[in-house]
Amino acid sequence: MNTPSAAALLTLAPRCAAAHSEERSPCEGPRAVVRIVDQNGNETTGCVHHAAVLYASLACCRVYPSPGHAGDVTEVYRRAQMLDSRPWRAVTAA
Prior knowledge:
3 helices, single chain, alpha+beta, about 15% strand
């Protein structure tokens, strides 16, 4: 059986690993430019957009660049500061 390469799997996946299932926006740029590590040591890779959303929703997490993407960590942090932690959820007035 022929197993697909990691690069082939990335092209098959519709969105990066950091994208939340309820959030429907597409990835922005490459899908693995940063690695998000939470306070328990769990980690995932993501595009700048979804990594920023994830970073905004987690407490005590860290962001690390993938090789060749050092500037994307700053972009993730900058965007996360301006985001609601769950921007895909509609806010309803009671």
